[in-house]
Amino acid sequence: MSSNSQKLSIIEKVGYGFGDAAANFVWRGALGYLAIFYTDTFGLMAAHVALLMLWVRLTDGVTDIVMGMIADRTDTRFGKFRPWIMWSAPGLALFMILCFTTPELSYTGKLIWAYVTYIGLTLAYTVNNVPYSALMGVMTPSVSERASISAYRFAGAFGGGLLVMGTLPVLVKFFGKGDEAQGYQYTMYLFASLIVIFCTITYFTTQERVKPPKVNRPPFAKEVKDVLYSLCVLCLPLFGTIIFLQFKNAVSLVFFLLTFAVTYFGAKYLTNRPEESRSSTQQELVDLINNKPWLILLSVGFLFMIFNSVRYGVIAYYFKHYAERDLTGEYFAALLIVSFFTALLVPYINRFFERKTLFIIAFALGAVFNSIIYFLGPDQITLLFVVGCIAEIFAAIMPVLYFGMLGDTADYSEWKNGRRATGLIYSAGSFVQKAGSGFAAAIVLLVLAHFGYDANKEETIVNSIEGMKLLMSWIPAVFGVLGLAMMSIYPLTPKRMKEIESDMAARRA
């Protein structure tokens, strides 16, 4: 089937965008305000919140991969991925409410409550968002149409984020009437209802068209066992990183280095085994390990997520304690309005710059404009809004390009190996986003903790101002430069993708 025959309607693209609008009630709304809610409303220490977010986000990677496997193996008359979007919406809405519930507990009880509800929220998000992301890879085989879908997706994402982050402070005040805890909970009731409505719209307006090649598979329980064993080896460096960040001593450093060695030799052993001795699940993992464009893109996704999330994670602290003006909602709204229109414009910008070049430009100029923020004083609010919005133009380009390019790596894998694990590829893409976001949240809170931040002690807040300025400027800029370097070696050029698309169309015919 030709690419032209796979041109999608505006209704389907907009309907797909509603799904990420729903996800961003959690991603930008709940998670964007959760750190300051935990420290300033629920009364948890910044260092404890940092470790909570880092542990949960990184271990969530295992569930992402398993969910990708489950979605790939789902077979209903409604599709592989669409049903999960509908089934998971109520659970996602429930746990978002519970995360912002403040029961009267001891400090230890509060910490346990935060872990349980936060883990529940991330699991529900995984069940919803991994199939949602993979759906884009099977709505059409056309590379250009996937790029267009990605633009609508992130227009929806930024639109949902704008609705949440722009209105949340106002709604908390309105519903709370002086009681911040009550205000947060009632606001989440409203947003939870919209999550269910938006996911329902996505389910009824989209279709799955790309069918993967048939693969003989062993029982699912054996596949889960295989993938968990492999993931325990592959994810060891993340565990080592957390241990090192928590203890920061010679023993934890040695453990950190050993985890990398085990992963390296474990992956080498798996890839060197004869193909006939591998299970289908192990073969899919080997395909991914040998998929160079996918590995590079995962690294880029991890870096741009830290680049974006560090900036967003410190905004509430920056305005509350440095600018000393309650403009957090207005600033979030301004950034997300810019992001919304930028996402819609990316397909048109792609006509003048191919995606790799545009990604590099976005990293470079995003880093430059973010670094300027460091030199702005607390009274230069107008200039902060202008510079921040210009930086956001380049930041908003990145996720639009990234998820469209993940579909390209799925095509590359099928073209090269004759196998296609769309759910697994997108679930890993979702995982690195969560890992990047988790590291970003930890970076924000650990930097604040390093400067002695304690919301209940005024003198520690004053001493933490320098950390807030760095988190708004130089720290994300460093990750922007690293992302630029990684993107420069990405090998899938437009010419190469045209060849792959043509070959794949001939095979499917």
3D architecture notes:
The protein is mainly alpha-helical and 509 residues long. It has two domains: 4-209 and 279-508, Up-down Bundle (Growth Hormone, Chain: A); 219-278. The chain has 19 helices and no strands. The chain has helices at residues 10-41, 46-73, 82-99, 107-138, 143-176, 180-205, 220-234, 236-247, 250-272, 280-289, 292-323, 328-349, 355-372, 381-417, 422-450, 458-463, 465-472, 474-487, 494-508. The relative contact order is 0.15.
- Name of the CATH first level of the largest domain: Mainly Alpha
**Topology-level CATH name of the largest domain:** Growth Hormone, Chain: A
The first-to-last residue Cα distance is 6 Å
Just name the CATH architecture of the largest domain: Up-down Bundle
> What's the story with the biggest beta sheet?
none
Provide the structure class. mainly alpha
Portion in helices: over 70%
CATH level-four homologous superfamily name of the largest domain: MFS general substrate transporter like domains
Low-pLDDT stretches: 1-5
Approximate shape: globular
Tell me the β content: under 5%
